[in-house]
Specification:
Blueprint lengths: L2 E12 L1 H6 L4 H4 L12 E7 L3 E7 L9 H10 L1 E9 L10 H4 L8 E2 L4 E5 L5 H4 L15 H16 L2 H18 L12 E5 L4 E6 L19 E6 L2 E5 L11 E3 L3 E7 L4 E7 L14
Antiparallel strand pairs: 1-4, 1-10, 2-3, 2-4, 5-6, 6-7, 7-8, 8-12, 9-10, 9-11, 12-13
Helix pairs in contact: 6-7
């Protein structure tokens, strides 16, 4: 179960205050609870040269000896209007040996030159989902189920015109896969918390989960998958945890919610609403 960070700003700048320096920064989240340490990789993504995605990654925890320095360099170098960060606590629906899970190609964010994607959660049947990726299946490089989810979202976004419609069809696809394997007690996914962007002027955040996965790293009143955001005229920040302890500043994104932010010349427009999932969509196993 990973941790997410995203910021979209009117002016290009650094995200070091939330990646490194704040009391609940992404770096602080990486090992605040050693029993739930984000030890399986990290990544920071941004856009350079007018819209080309760049990602710096590590394959162990950002807090680890010898790795922290790499993370700090990447956090200092990342500058732009859009910056994403990710901490990885690896899921393993393929039941692979642990050493196969740990590799740079399995760390996030994922990118395809013009888009960036980061995910918290797991899809339960990545092998059965891969045929739905179409021409994008050959682009998979690792064994991370999140990479399968990324290319499914890309394919559906291309086919249906925008990331919101793409996300809704992605959820429907995952449910159909689950139904196709006989509706086992394992749900189609544990969490589909996603940050996604197709360039330096937009940010999409989606929050959707099944089951109970405990509480947040810093606040026992928050559910682990409950996302949060802070918005002002010039900037929006969104992530898995509030990035400081200021009361009343961070708003909740409960399960079934999305956020869309668009950068203009003088302000960032933000919309938060319910994900328009079809009525009656079955995303949880029936009671036993």
């Amino acid at each position: 179960m990973c941790r997410l960070f995203g910021v979209l700003s009117v002016q290009a700048g650094s995200a070091e205050p939330w990646l490194v320096r704040s009391d609940r920064s992404l770096l602080a989240q990486s090992n605040v609870d050693p029993e739930r340490a984000q030890k399986d990789g990290w990544g920071i993504g941004w856009f350079v040269d007018g819209g080309r995605a760049r990602v710096e990654k590590g394959k162990v925890g950002a807090f680890a000896e010898g790795e922290r320095e790499h993370y700090l360099r990447a956090a200092a170098e990342a500058r732009g209007t859009l910056i994403l960060g990710h901490l990885r606590h690896a899921s393993n629906p393929l039941k692979l040996p642990y050493e196969r899970l740990i590799a740079l190609e399995n760390s996030q964010p994922f990118e395809d030159h013009t888009s960036l994607f980061a995910h918290n959660g797991a899809i339960s049947f990545p092998t059965e989902t891969r045929p739905l990726l179409g021409v994008h299946e050959v682009k998979i490089r690792g064994v991370n189920d999140s990479e399968v989810l990324y290319w499914l979202l890309v394919r559906n976004t291309e086919e249906h015109g925008d990331p919101l419609a793409g996300y809704v069809h992605t959820v429907e696809d995952l449910v159909r896969v689950w139904q196709g394997v006989g509706k086992p007690p394992l749900p189609p996914f544990s969490g589909l918390n996603v940050l996604f962007t197709r360039g330096p002027d937009e940010l999409w955040a989606f929050c959707l989960w099944t089951g109970d996965h405990g509480v947040g790293l810093f606040d026992a009143t928050r559910r682990y998958y409950e996302m949060t955001y802070q918005s002002a005229a010039h900037r929006v920040i969104v992530g898995s945890e509030p990035f400081d302890g200021e009361p009343g500043v961070w708003k909740s994104m409960p399960s079934g919610t999305y956020l869309y932010a668009r950068r203009g010349p003088h302000h960032v427009d933000v919309k938060v609403a319910k994900i328009p999932l079809p009525s009656g969509l079955e995303i949880r196993p029936p009671p036993s």
